[in-house]
């Protein structure tokens, strides 16, 4: 027996037919009395159901799903015979879209039913504030509803559903957009303004001008489609070093795909973001310019366990000068300090043994704000002087405190406008260009400046938030092709929400797994699904931990460190948080600090040396 389909949206046609019958009755009454039927107001478009195939009874007709991630299935369904099943991957959130014609200055209600893991239902291109509803989990069918109003020039909007990278499949059914209809959807015009950013050795960033009436853009490398995205930028990865590539982009909606844009050609660099590191590396900070309770450790006495040694710290002459200075710890503070000549000889010996020695800028006391172009240029000049004098391999950016803060209105990490952020990016790019592909670049931000960006970014759309929240994200994003290692400090941190929307606290494997998974999976910044921080490569990521209980808050016992690595690299020994994938190429660990590890009988480095990576 055929199942009868009951749809909430079906009420719309019934109401429309009821209005028609009432109008006819009134007309008959008026005409029977010898009168004329006069309209009291100009005619307007009637509210009606606008979503095409919202129940997926006709398969995916009217819908376009990214990367072939969507399919019509017969179970489970909310009603009728079919529903959408969309399965995210590690690099695709299974976004399914439809472009709908609408009227300007009109109110609409978008609703739908979802089941499964993360599920979003939303609309873009409204001309006002785009809207969405979502749920992190829907074991049974759950209704999502949101409303919006179109702008004065809006004639079409794009509906979408999507899940989350690497999570379980989601199901959607009975998608409804109710409101006044517009003109039929037309195929978009070809995008314009396609441009290539600074290529990496295996990637090329692309951006282009938005095209009206567009649901998604298709990116082509030569004749091959390599990406489908909803925004106006993407980074094409998986390329070969020192190779020229030609790219084009087209615009698509439910009416079809446009012609391709004019082509742009870009050549990848010769390779490397500071090569020479082993597959799994140990990074440590050496207190070179000061002493504390851990005591002073000569560079020559640092064991071979350490693959990257960050000299702490280069500090500015003033917060806003950009003029960075570095000198060895004074003998009055560090009686066993080596001479400058001995220090330089130790650097060369470490490098001869395959180690990398970097200057780390900032730290807890070294606030650096490059608020002017003069400060930016002074930073480049002074850091270059330090690197050249000591023959160093690169730079570590350890900006803390109030070094980075976003100005009000700077809300998009992909296009920052705050001077201290823009100038830092420009300065580092200049240094990278000066020293070439072997220049090692690392960063050690606190969780407040990175993973907290999942919930909060800057002062927020309405102001009032801490403007430092997530403020490292634009720096990391802009420099991702130059970045050797990101090792976020998993210490001195408050609880942080992971992609499971649960808070995780320091000192346990779950905290480290959840926060690392965010970097390797990507996440929507401030919960905005149209502004997703893309994942980093596993070999670009290390986990920052204190070497001892005295070093910092959040010390993690060796057994928990090993559980963290087991879960992330092998998919075993996981706790309540399970990462979206396994990452056997995870680069390794960073610690604060080498001095504190020595104080603690080298427990941290010995545990790292003994860990079985395979």
TrEMBL record:
The keyword Hydrolase applies. InterPro entries: CenC_carb-bd (IPR003305), Chitinase_II/V-like_cat (IPR011583), FN3_dom (IPR003961), FN3_sf (IPR036116), Galactose-bd-like_sf (IPR008979), GH (IPR017853), Glyco_hydro18_cat (IPR001223), Glyco_hydro_18_chit_AS (IPR001579). Keywords: Carbohydrate metabolism, Glycosidase, Hydrolase, Polysaccharide degradation, Signal. It is an enzyme of class 3 (hydrolase). Residues 280-614 form the GH18 domain. CDD domains: FN3 (cd00063), GH18_chitinase_D-like (cd02871). This is chitinase.
């Amino acid at each position: 027996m055929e199942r009868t389909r009951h749809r909430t949206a079906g009420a719309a046609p019934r109401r429309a037919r009821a209005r028609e019958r009432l109008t006819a009755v009134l007309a008959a009454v008026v005409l029977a009395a010898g009168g004329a039927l006069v309209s009291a107001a100009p005619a307007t478009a009637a509210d009606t159901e606008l979503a095409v195939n919202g129940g997926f009874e006709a398969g995916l007709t009217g819908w376009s799903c990214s990367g072939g991630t969507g399919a019509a299935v017969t179970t489970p369904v909310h009603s009728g015979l079919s529903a959408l099943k969309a399965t995210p991957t590690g690099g695709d959130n299974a976004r399914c879209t439809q472009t709908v014609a609408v009227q300007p200055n009109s109110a609409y209600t978008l609703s739908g039913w979802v089941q499964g893991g993360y599920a979003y239902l939303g609309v873009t291109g409204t001309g006002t504030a785009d809207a969405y509803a979502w749920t992190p989990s829907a074991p049974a069918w759950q209704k999502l509803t949101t409303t919006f109003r179109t702008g004065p020039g809006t004639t079409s909007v794009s509906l979408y559903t999507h899940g989350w990278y690497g999570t379980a499949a989601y199901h959607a059914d009975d998608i409804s957009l109710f409101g006044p209809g517009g003109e039929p959807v037309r195929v978009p015009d070809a995008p314009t303004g396609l441009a290539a950013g600074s290529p990496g050795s295996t990637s090329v960033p692309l951006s282009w001008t938005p095209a009206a009436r567009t649901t998604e853009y298709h990116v082509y490398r030569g004749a091959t489609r390599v990406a489908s995205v909803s925004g106006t930028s993407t980074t094409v990865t998986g390329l070969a070093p020192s190779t020229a590539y030609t790219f084009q982009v087209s615009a698509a909606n439910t009416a079809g795909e446009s012609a391709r844009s004019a082509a742009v050609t870009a050549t990848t660099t010769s390779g490397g973001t500071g090569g020479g590191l082993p597959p799994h590396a140990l990074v440590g900070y050496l207190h070179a310019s000061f002493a504390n309770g851990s005591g002073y450790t000569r560079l020559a006495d640092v064991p071979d366990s350490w693959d990257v040694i960050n000299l702490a710290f280069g500090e500015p002459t003033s917060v806003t000068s950009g003029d960075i200075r570095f000198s060895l710890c004074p003998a009055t503070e560090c009686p066993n300090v080596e001479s400058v000549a001995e220090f330089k000889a130790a650097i060369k010996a470490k490098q001869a043994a395959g180690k990398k020695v970097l200057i780390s800028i900032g730290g807890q006391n070294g606030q650096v704000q490059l608020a002017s172009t003069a400060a930016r240029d002074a930073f480049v000049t002074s850091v270059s002087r330090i690197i050249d004098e000591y023959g160093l391999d690169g730079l570590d950016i350890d900006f803390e405190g109030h070094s980075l803060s976003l100005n009000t209105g700077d809300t998009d990490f992909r296009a920052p406008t705050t001077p201290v952020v823009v100038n830092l990016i420009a300065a580092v790019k200049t240094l990278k260009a000066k020293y070439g592909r072997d220049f090692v670049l690392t960063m050690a931000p606190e969780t407040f400046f990175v993973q907290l960006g999942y919930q909060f970014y800057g002062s927020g759309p309405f102001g009032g938030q801490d403007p430092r929240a997530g403020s490292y994200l634009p720096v990391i994003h802009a420099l991702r092709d130059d970045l050797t290692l990101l090792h976020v400090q998993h210490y001195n941190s408050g609880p942080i929400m992971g992609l499971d929307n649960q808070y995780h606290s320091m000192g346990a494997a779950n905290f480290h797994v959840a926060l690392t998974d965010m970097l390797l999976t990507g996440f929507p910044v401030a919960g905005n699904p149209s502004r997703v921080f893309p994942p980093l490569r596993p070999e670009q990521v290390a986990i920052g931990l204190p070497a001892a209980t005295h070093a910092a808050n959040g010390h993690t016992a060796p057994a928990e460190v090993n559980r963290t690595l087991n879960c992330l690299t092998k998919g075993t020994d996981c706790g309540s948080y399970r990462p979206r994938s396994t990452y056997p190429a995870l680069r390794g660990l960073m610690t604060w600090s080498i001095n504190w590890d020595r104080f603690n009988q080298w427990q941290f480095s010995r545990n790292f040396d003994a860990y079985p990576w395979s």
